[in-house]
Write a structure and sequence with these properties.
80% helix, mainly alpha, Helix Hairpins, 116 residues
Length: 116
Amino acid sequence: MASFFWYTYKLIKIILNGIRHDQEFRFLLIFIALLLTCSTLFYTKYEGWSIVDSLYFSVMTMSTVGYGDFVPSTASSKIFTIVFTFLSIGVFVAFTAKVVKIAFETKPQKNAKKKT
């Protein structure tokens, strides 16, 4: 359990570092938040799901997990989901790659200390 908190702490540090120092990271984060907000509101209104269920479905779709416990039932929801999937998967992958890049860039260099 301690390792969970340690890695959560490290992830939060990476995200805060990205927000402070990387414009592309900020854009991706805002775009993900916008996509999740819009899709959550859409599914709440057109599918009648609760906000938590709508957000859950949006995150599962964005991350390509897709458990199948929620399924869009109307034609408009299915079309929206197709567009949302294409947009969100690309942004999610770009965001994840940016997090990994920031993690490696901010990792302390042991060899750099020895050379100086």
